[in-house]
Design goal:
The chain is mainly α and 280 residues long. The chain is built from eleven helices and no strands. It has helices spanning 8-15, 40-49, 57-70, 86-101, 106-122, 130-141, 156-161, 168-179, 201-213, 224-232, 261-279.
């Protein structure tokens, strides 16, 4: 497996990282990059796909900055989004991204455990109970906004935040709920129904949502359907090919170029095998 952390994509991203670890003028923003300055979230998602971990200095730098913001010592930026409870949404994003790279970071872990109380209550009966969820949410965070929770808990951020902090029962119920609904920002359709066309950007996004769920200890049995779909679509050369349209500058490419089909297939195969190794 190649080390993509030294390739041209990583080099370009790191060249625009600021001294405090951030990118651009905004933290939040997950849209596909369009040539404009990256948001910090866009950079983090791309660097994670390229194999960066908390052992890498650029990641340690931004994680330290996000932790400082989570503690209230500074602001990540001046952005404020109307229409949702942004005062709650911002720390949720920060803690989720910290835990994506450093699950044991104390500030983010403590924040995740607060959310775990809410999820445990919301799924105490084995299925989602909105009233129970909202009651514990209000008690834990003292929020009585028109929007009692910052976006639904099937969003990307909750999926990144909660591995390792839920009881097996709550985790199982939550994962099943997400599988039936999708992951907002990533793949907002039921994950239990694989994409109609394997060679597509849609499959890459479907896989991205399942990669998040694979971080939970109890998901192996729940993701058998995904392994079956992937093996059904392996090529005669024992490689996978998601096609040229999967090149979204988010999850692909990993190699410096997709000018050759061989490089594209190598990237797709590397990613899919990494996922299969986690769930089988």
């Amino acid at each position: 497996m190649l080390d993509h952390r030294t390739g041209k994509w990583a080099t370009a991203i790191l060249a625009s990282q600021r001294d405090d670890g951030t990118w651009g003028s905004m933290f939040h923003g997950l849209a596909q990059p369009t040539g404009k300055p990256l948001t910090t979230e866009q950079a983090l998602r791309r660097l994670h796909a390229l194999g960066f971990t908390i052992a890498d200095e650029p990641i340690r730098c931004i994680v330290n900055t996000m932790a400082s913001c989570l503690r209230g010592e500074r602001k990540i930026d001046t952005y404020w989004e109307k229409g949702i409870d942004w005062a709650m949404y911002e720390p949720l994003m920060l803690a989720a991204w910290i835990r994506r790279f450093d699950p044991e970071q104390p500030d983010a872990l403590a924040y995740a455990r607060r959310w775990a109380k809410i999820v445990e209550a919301g799924f105490a009966t084995g299925t989602y109970d909105e009233a129970a969820w909202n009651a514990v949410y209000e008690a834990e965070f003292h929020r009585r906004e028109r929007h009692p929770q910052p976006i639904g808990f099937t969003a990307l951020y909750h999926a990144m935040l909660l591995p390792g902090v839920l009881s097996p029962e709550a985790e199982s119920a939550m994962i099943q709920h997400i599988l039936e609904r999708g992951v907002y920002y990533i793949y907002d359709k039921p994950l239990i129904h694989p994409p109609a066309a394997f060679a597509s950007k849609e499959t890459s996004n479907w896989l991205a949502a399942l990669e998040l769920l694979s971080e939970y200890s109890g998901t192996k049995d729940k993701l058998n359907f995904a392994a079956a779909f992937l093996y059904l679509n392996i090529g005669p050369d024992s490689q996978w090919d998601l096609g040229a349209k999967a090149n979204d500058k988010v999850y692909f490419p990993l190699s410096d170029s997709w000018r050759t089909k061989a490089a594209r297939k190598a990237d797709c195969t590397e990613r899919i095998r990494r996922f299969l190794n986690k769930i089988t």
